[in-house]
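ingest -> fold -> write
write: protein_1
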Amino acid sequence: MSGRQDDALVDRVLGFSGGPVVVVGDLLLDRWITGTADRLSREAPAAVVQVGGRDDVPGGAANTAVNLAALGADVRIVGSIGADEAGDVLVALLRAAGVDTGGVVRLEGLPTTVKTRICVAGQVLLRFDEGRKLTDEEAGAVASRLPAAIADAGAVLVCDYDMGVAGGAVRTALGAVERTAPLVVDAHDLLPWFALHPDAVTPNAGETERLLGRPLGADRVRTATDAAGELHVRTGATGVIVTLDRDGTVVHADGATSRTLAKPAPDANTNGAGDTFAAALTLALASGLDLHGAARFGQLAADVVTRTPGTGVCTAADLVASLRDGARLLDEDTLVAALSAERVTGKRIVFTNGCFDVLHRGHTAYLKQARAQGDILVVAVNDDDSTRRLKGPGRPLNPAADRAGLVAELSCVDYVTVFSTDTPIALIERIEPDVYAKGGDYVPEMLEETAVVEAHGGEVRILDYVSPHSTTDLIARVRAAGVADA
């Protein structure tokens, strides 16, 4: 499978052999209790869960540390847990994963934070949390471990879930040490970290809204993109990466803005994906990548863990294997660079585009034919606004992230990107495809793109028409069936 740029990026990061990555933050134990439920209790209108399995996994900063170790990093962790059974379990899990726990403070009277989820048929029925916020004295004990832990660090990652570990004492200790390694802060509240001027911060959608003092609105990507200056000013960070789950990330760094695209995943599968992203991002920065490349690496790792439910860990082997399975979802700039690398090896680039609102047999037949016209198939998917302009009110039925993600799952597709204009002419001018493929309901003379493709030395090929398979027909049949049933 293609994707030479991602392959090179992953090889570089996984080959990093510099100083240890130090994780500082709130350590949690995630407990998953799974079972079946087919009746209600006699005592109350509540489901009776017949327990079938229990699983303890590191959570919070502990999960981040385990992800780093799974990617091959030398990892130290600094934090606190209780001198209790849950703490014993968590330390054992960290050590088994290869994490250095010398910076973990065991505190009498502090209950280890445990989040227990009850799951039935892949759905979380209930979550209950145990633990409390650290006192200033307890946080001071954690801060005292920092100087020795970060003395030779290749990077420092703070995971601040507002539970007191990464409080004022830790910030003071970090600020007192001359910084030679990248500092990444993943915090619920980034404002207290302003004075340290982190190299990168990773606010999610809710955290970004609090920073800006306003909602992101329906077009979260556009709002996050336009807010670059505000985010830099409010966080004091050199680089800001806004993480938007299903919408990927928006990266502001070095005076430029870029995006990563996420593969769609059920919400139940996204627990811990943020930890994986932060871990992979930090390792990539330690290896010398700029923030835009590091965010791409983080997205690749996060996409791996969202494929399965539970607190996720992305191993180096998982990441390498994922590059051989499925197309790459890339922003425009990254796509252009990737295709340049493909051309160096003599690959013939085929390009096509469409809305792909409801994927059907006509689409898959036409994409297979398109792939046969060359070595690499690139599919550009209209974003929601351009689809609405082209198809009318009520469209698209599915958001761009879902539509692009489904196309990316087809084995005949190599690269997928999302574009916002009504025609892909601007994208064609940058990609310069060898072949522009369109379905049999067109002729070259109908297409505005024909002159642009030919001007760059390419050719337009009209593929077979598969009738009567069209999204419009399919939607009409579904709506007609709904009216008949009513």
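write: protein_2
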Amino acid sequence: MQLKFVGGASTVTGSKHLVTQGETRVLVDCGLFQGVKTLRLRNWRALPFNPASLDAVVLTHAHIDHSGFLPVLVREGFHGPIYTTAASKELCEILLLDSGRLQEEEAEYANRKRFSRHSPALPLYTEADARRVLRRIHPVEYDAPRSVGALEFTLTPAGHILGAAGVALRGGGTSVHVSGDIGRDNDLLMVPPRPPAGVDWVVMESTYGDRRHPEDDPIEALGAVVRRTFERGGVLLIPAFAVGRTQLLLYCLHEVFARGLAPAVKVYVNSPMATDVTRLYQRYHEYHRLDEEQTRGVCRDVVFVRTVQESKRLNQRRGPAVIVSASGMLTGGRVLHHLRAFAPDRRNTILLTGYQVPGTRGGALVGGARSLKMHGDHVPVRAEVVQLDVFSAHADQEGLLAWLGASAPRPRGVFLVHGEPLAADHLRLQIEERLGIDARVPEHLETVEL
């Protein structure tokens, strides 16, 4: 068995792992590179393999850094099946179409305002490209083995977000478990991730490999920010991923108001995608910790904003108010227009609720930036900027070590991906010292024989 790290090596984005057994080639994940320009440019380069040579793609989950390059793969000649869970299939329908539309809109806006260096500015792919992907996605149940040529794969629950899975592949007398993103044992919404079992090798995420999550109560921490913002008469703007993070925040805000930690107000969710995803969380409630009645109660006082006109009117609001809008790292979407409206006012708060990739606007805010470039303009940031890491859907260092340490029997070795170099190397040392398992951090485009 051969393993090639086409993406997600020494970075926290663009996950793609090519597994080859004899003449069979399976790509596990097909993510979009995000963040700094040097990474984003990889999206425009030719792949180091012929997409038509792939027998299948197996998708761990629907987040764009794991699924967002699928439209390019299909456009460039991939014609095989894409396997993932039923919930991930439905999430992909929402996320990929939205991604295609957003890229078209951004290219059109750049051309209209003439602030792009490219003439004309082009989208990486279109909504039509994304639609072609959807016809190839086939749902697979957890723990139901499937064969692709000389390889067999099985999906196992990974926590993290709705439908997320780890992928165990077997063939030629060896086996490898690709973790995807690993959830938390104590996640407020998602069930715990299942550790790998009976595999020789593990390809493992390392996003929080050098950190421990704060032990603060997420609801208490959020309540303090809400209360402080409301006391100033401000608007709380929360950039949040449409999948997973928004739904968790709605639950936590519901609890903040129910516990009297801050005055109860309407919560505005300004993301059509987040609205659709929230409905999926309600439909697939057996996949997470909340029952059907609880999922309905969480959304009872939430206003889901659909139209552009409603979105524009939100920019005229004064506090106290809460606006949750995508994207979580301020890379695009309606939240940028809210940021332009609310960032210059000291009464307001911008709450970042998770990891921010260097090179994104969220990363710049974490670094103390007092202005942000948006649509060709520099917008001053006078609002309070708060980062809370208590909402992460990723396991931290201790969670990752516990997940790997629970594998039975222990694997022969571990490859650490989907993490910044420092985080991955810290985790490597901990795995070797505490678990006695060989671990290494592969390089981009490196190939290993298993």
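write: annotation protein_2
The chain has a mean pLDDT of 94.
The chain has two domains: 2-211+393-449, 218-391.
pipeline exit 0
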